[in-house]
Amino acid sequence: MSLAIYILKRVAQALPTVLAVSIIGFFLMRYHIALGPIEIPTASGPIRLLERVELKQPIDPLADLRQNPQISPQALAKEEERLGLDQPLLVQYWRWLTHFIQLDLGQTNKGENVATLLASRSGNTLLLNLLSMLVTWGLAIPLGVYAAIYWRSAADRLLTLFSSIGMAFPGFVLALILAMLAVQTGWFPVGGLTSSHFSSLSFPEQLLDMAHHLVLPVAVLGFSGIAGLMRQMRGNLLDVLQAEYVKTARAKGLPEWLVIYKHAVRNAINPLVTMLGYELAAMLSGTVLIETVLNYPGLGFLTYQAAIQGDANLVMASLVLSCLMLIVGNLLADLLLHWVDPRVGLA
After folding, report:
1. 311-326 pLDDT, tens per residue?
2. Residue 113 DSSP code
3. What SS3 class is residue 39?
4. For 204-213, what is each residue's pLDDT tens digit?
5. How far is residue 231 from each of residues 160, 165, 173, 304, 324, measured CA to CA in Å?
């Protein structure tokens, strides 16, 4: 199968997924879902059989405005018409879908342009996650290889302890600890991406200012990422080093560095390539807690606030964008895996 046909096939398979995600997301944005147990009374006491699903009243995005006595009924009616709340649910969804296909993401409940707002916040989140990925993969792979080569050494045991702590330590707790240390010491700024005098700085100074603000969030995201990826790389390489072709390469008298880095590491890293798809999918929405704790101006916290306020246009745009990132990430991971190991075919 050619590369172009394979990509077209994957895109066609992804369209129903995106449609299903948009339908479910839009429905959940309009209605509360309450779960509760169903109990049957018996002589020995009630028996809980299963959970019931109950739809409660629709979520009202204009609830705050309705509580404001200064807002007239005419103004509320105009807002309902602007947001399409005066139409049935299916009509609202069809209206949103047709606008989305035309790349018109609409406006937020406050009248802001959704596309502009997403572009400004998603750029900050992508920058944070790309830097975190570079730090994570740049450190985790060499450390995992080193731990596997020097298996059961003092360094291996120390790195294994670090990976265990890193995987078990909650990221938001680390963010709180680092934020408190930063406030007490003044070494790093907490909150924002730039300083208040950013516009008056030269270009090199602006880069340094942004890097200074990114140290804490990148360190928090990279800590657990390095721990998990390093542990995975160490385990994969230990398995590969016991393979017959590695023993054969050593028996032929090949240098140890060539056996490890050309034969063993290349095959051990293949399973990690598929993890890139999930990391790409989480780029836009996987840092909500970190952005909230560190007051980082990213898309995750913006989407969380929009969901609380019932802002359907903003939440739906972010949801579908995250779904597309998942699809693109998985596609890129499969193509990269095929490029790294041509034995893995495209089907």
Report:
1. 888 888 888 888 887 7
2. B
3. strand
4. 888 898 888 8
5. 7, 11, 22, 32, 29
